[in-house]
Fold this sequence. Notes:
The chain is an all-alpha fold.
Amino acid sequence: MPPPVAEREYFLNLLDEAYDKxxxxxxxxxGSLRGVGPKLAAWRPTEARHNxxxxxxxxxxxxxxxxxxxxxxxxxxxxxxxxxxxxRPQAETDDAWKxxxxxxxxEHRLLRETVRTLPPxxxxxxxxxxxxxxxxxxxxxxxxxxxxKRMAPRD
Length: 155
């Protein structure tokens, strides 16, 4: 049975609210990254913790994973070397930071397009939960980013 248009729109709106559309709960993922430059993005609360930069790339990676799970695409096609937690920054520059933010934006756009064009039979219970999980993942890491920003030393 095909998913109702309203259901498809629900999932698209859910992904967008968690990433870049106004959300009731406060900053979404993109909003949490607003105003973050390469120095703040590279700052670590402690040596053993992830920085904002790694959280952004981690979120991009999992958008890719969800897209791959929905389409059956082969592993190994993520645009960066590595998986899950990719050490960042490679270079603490504006250009490097902007390039990685572009990876995040691109992966969101590709995931959104995958959901928009997913055939009706693709909306299995597992797919629905996976898409919902991708949105929750963005919100979770947006919260972490907001906390790290508050912990970071002020210049």
